[in-house]
Amino acid sequence: MAKELTIVKIGGNVINDPDQLMSFLRDFSNLEGMKILVHGGGKKATEMADSLGLSPKMTGGRRITDAANLEVVTMVYAGLLNKNIVARLQAFNCNALGLSGADANVIKAHKRIVKEIDFGFAGDIDEVDATMISSFLDAGLSPVFSAITHDQNGQLLNTNADTIASEIAKAMSGIFKVDLIYCFEKSGVLRDVEDEDSIIEEINRQSYTRLVENGVIADGMLPKLKNCYEALGQGVDKVRIGKPDLIRNKEIKHTTLKL
Amino acid sequence: MAKELTIVKIGGNVINDPDQLMSFLRDFSNLEGMKILVHGGGKKATEMADSLGLSPKMTGGRRITDAANLEVVTMVYAGLLNKNIVARLQAFNCNALGLSGADANVIKAHKRIVKEIDFGFAGDIDEVDATMISSFLDAGLSPVFSAITHDQNGQLLNTNADTIASEIAKAMSGIFKVDLIYCFEKSGVLRDVEDEDSIIEEINRQSYTRLVENGVIADGMLPKLKNCYEALGQGVDKVRIGKPDLIRNKEIKHTTLKL
Known about the structure:
The structure is a homodimer of 259-residue chains.
Chain A: E1 4-10, H1 12-15, H2 18-30, E2 34-39, H3 44-51, E3 57-59, E4 62-64, H4 67-91, E5 96-99, E6 107-111, E7 123-128, H5 130-138, E8 142-145, E9 148-150, E10 156-158, H6 161-172, E11 177-183, E12 202-203, H7 205-213, H8 221-233, E13 238-242, E14 255-257
Parallel strand pairs in A: 1-2, 1-11, 2-8, 5-8, 11-13, 12-14
Antiparallel strand pairs in A: 3-4, 6-7, 9-10, 13-14
Helix pairs in contact in A: 3-4, 6-8
C-alpha cells in the first residue's frame, strides 16, 4: 500500500493573523506522517508594494505581475514569509525545508501566454518533480512551498498557490496516497455564502456540476474547486476544504470532495 | 580518498553588478564536482531599507540589525537575491537549492550575546549539519546559502556571510576535502591596498601573524583572514582569496592561505 502524504494549503487569512498562523503551524507540526505545506501571500506583499510606492497593476479585475511587483512577491513570499514559517516550524520540531519552484528545479513553469490579457510574470506550471520532492520527504523533511516558480531560463514567476498545491498533489499521487487540504476563511463550500452553518459536507462530480450551474459555486470558489477536481481526476485520493482548524480536528465540519 | 568539495563565497561587489553576477554564476555552474555557494547581500538591502524609510542603525561603526532591518535582509537575501541566483543557476544547468540556515535546520545559531554593543538580531553560529548538506550534494544538488540563520526558537538571524562560508567549510571537512574560495573586489591580500599588483601569493600562519603585526592585514581583511585561518585550523584543505574570475581560471594571481 502506498505511503500517505498530507498536502496542506494555507492562504492569506491565516498568514495575515500572527496568532492564527502560530496556531496553524503548531497543528501542522503535529500532523503525523509525511507532509507538505503550500502557502499563499496575504496582504504583506500589498503592504510592501504600497510602502515602495508601487501601485497594483490590474486589468479586468485581475492582478498583473510587472517586474517591480515580481520583485516584491519574490521578497515577501519566498523570503520573509517562507523563512519565518520555516523557522517557526523548526521551533515546533518539524524539519521544514523552504522551497520555491526554482529550488532543486522542483516546479517548472512558463510565463503565461498572452491572449486577451498580459498577466506579466505569472507562471503556469508544466511539471512538478515528484521524485525530488519524495527524496526530501524520505530524508525526514517537510517541504514548504512559496508561490514562486521559474521558467528554467532564469526567470522567476508568480504562481497561484492553490494551483501549486493541486499540481504537487497530482504529481505526488503517483507515489503516495495523497490527502489534499485547502484551508481558507470559510468552513467549507457554503450553500449560502453568508451562513457558516450551510456547509455542503460532501460534493461529488455530479453535484459539483449542478452547484456550478446553480451559481452556488461562484467567484473565487470556481477556480479553487476546478483545481480540486483536476487533482481528484488525476489520482489524488481525497480533497477537503475548510478552516485551518480542520488539520487539528478532523471532526470539524468541512467539505469533502469526491469524484 | 575523500571526495572534493568547492565552497565559494561571493560578496556585494559581484551581487551589485548584474553582468559580473551573470558571468560569475556561469563560471560557478561550470565548476566540476560538488560545490556550494554562499552569497552576501550587497547594496540592495540598503536600497530597500532606504526606500522603506528605515535608517541604518549603527553603533561604534557597526551595523545593528533591529526587527525592521531583519525583515529587510530576510526579504532581500533569502528571497530576492537567493531565488534569482538559484533560477539563474538552473538556467546554466546547475541544480541549485537555495537555503537559509533555518531550512532543514542546516545552520543553528544564537542571537549574539550583548557585551558592549547590542547587535540586535545578529546570529553567531553554533552548528552546521554536515550530514544533511552532504545528502543534498549526494542528490546532485548545489546548495546556495543566503546569510540568514535561525535560533531554533523561531527567530531568524542576520549572519555574516564570510563566517557562514568558513563554518560550512569546517563542518564539511569531516567528510570532504574542502577547497574554500573567497571572492571579493581585490585580487587577493595586497601588500599595498592601492596596488593590485602587490598581491601576496602565499601566506602561512607565521607570515600571517607578521602581516597583522605590520598592519598590512587590517580593517575588513582582519575578520576575513581570521575566518580563513579558523577554517584551515579545523581541517579545511585550502583557502584562496581573489577576484571572482579565479573560479574560472586558477592561473589568475590570487592569495593562497596555508597553515
